[in-house]
TrEMBL record:
This is UDP-N-acetylenolpyruvoylglucosamine reductase. The active site is at 157, 229 (proton donor), 325. HAMAP family: MurB. Its cofactor is FAD. Pathway: Cell wall biogenesis; peptidoglycan biosynthesis. The lineage of its organism: Bacteria, Pseudomonadati, Bacteroidota, Bacteroidia, Bacteroidales. Residues 12-181 form the FAD-binding PCMH-type domain.
């Protein structure tokens, strides 16, 4: 058995029957041809969006495909091809250092580039689908396929790669298009407020602000096990919001197309009195109610019990179902 403790940010002490890493498309295809990838199998990134509920009785695969290369560029934009094993925040830092705009609001999101394209990660008004042009994959038969961004079926924290029938499709590289022209997304959270502390608006300043905001709200997984935001923000019809506003006039929300709105799950959890509360060795973080934490020695079942209790409270108080963003294994 192979310990998965270093491969999940929740710090759940579980093991896998086998653990295989590969550093290239060729190496992955060879492993498949040799029959090393037996069923069941699980492909992981940085383990920042996983909750292991028990030992994994199968093969765990992990990409070590590195590299950031410029595929094409002109005066206005640059296209870069990035290995699935590159740490996401290292890629964002690289973009900022090179003066490429678009990824800075996604600073400090944990995980790896391959998983970013599966999960459609997002923060502060930006989703990774806004930057992706193509996703390169290999399937369990060893066949390569390139998906255009349109074929990826992106939606809020979702893509076709999350569907059960596509669990045997492994992302190897992701291609992104970034802008060389100065533009920012500053209207989410407290970004503009924080900007007032700086003499000028620059790409490194925006990245620093995003990192500072995230570090102030989110616990470091190395210190306290967590998977960042545990729940997705629910999307509801405008009529539902208006009905709730009768009772909760200060309820925050974000406008979406087609008359729908997104309500912050963290705000509702906080209103239910869960912020900072523990249930056994699992707790709701005291600074950000969207985050569930392992206080030490928690099992996957402890985290799920807390998640279920929080969801029941939100459902009872607001009549809204909130769903985990984290994948249970």
């Amino acid at each position: 058995m192979y310990s998965l403790l270093p491969y999940n940010t929740f710090g759940i002490d579980v093991s896998a029957n086998r653990f295989i890493e590969y550093a290239s498309v060729e190496e992955l295809k060879t492993l498949i041809e040799q029959g090393a990838v037996t069923t069941p199998f699980l492909h992981i990134g940085g383990g920042s969006n996983l909750l292991f509920t028990k030992d994994y009785e199968g093969v765990v695969l992990h990409s070590r495909i590195e590299g950031i290369e410029v595929a094409e560029e002109d005066e206005r934009s640059v296209s870069v091809r990035v290995g699935a094993g590159v740490v996401w925040d290292d890629f964002v830092a690289y973009c900022v250092e090179h003066g490429w705009y678009g990824a800075e609001n996604l600073s400090l999101i944990p995980g790896e580039v391959g998983a970013s394209a599966v999960q459609n990660i997002g923060a502060y008004g930006v989703e990774v689908k806004d930057l992706i042009t193509t996703v390169e994959t290999v399937n369990i038969q060893g066949r390569e396929r390139v998906y255009s961004v349109e074929e990826c079926g992106y939606a809020y924290r979702n893509s076709i790669f999350k569907r059960p029938e596509n669990k045997s499709v492994f992302v190897t590289h992701v291609c992104f298009r970034l802008s060389k022209e100065e533009h920012y997304m500053l209207d989410y959270g407290t970004i503009r407020q924080e900007l007032e502390k700086y003499p000028a608006l620059t790409l490194p300043v925006v990245r620093k602000i995003i990192i500072d905001i995230r570090e102030a709200k989110l616990p470091d997984p190395k210190v306290m096990g967590n998977a960042g935001s545990f729940f997705m923000n629910p999307i509801v019809p405008r009529e539902k919001l208006e009905a709730l506003q009768q009772e909760y006039p200060g309820m925050p929300y974000y406008e979406l197309p087609e008359g729908r709105v997104k309500i912050p799950a963290g705000w509702m959890i906080d209103q239910c009195g869960w912020k900072g509360k523990a249930l056994g060795p699992a707790a709701v973080h005291d600074k950000q109610a969207l985050v569930l934490v392992n206080c030490g020695g928690a099992k996957g079942s402890d985290i799920i019990a807390l998640s279920d209790a929080v969801r029941a409270s939100v459902r009872e108080k607001f009549g809204i179902d909130i769903h985990p963003e984290v994948n249970f294994v």
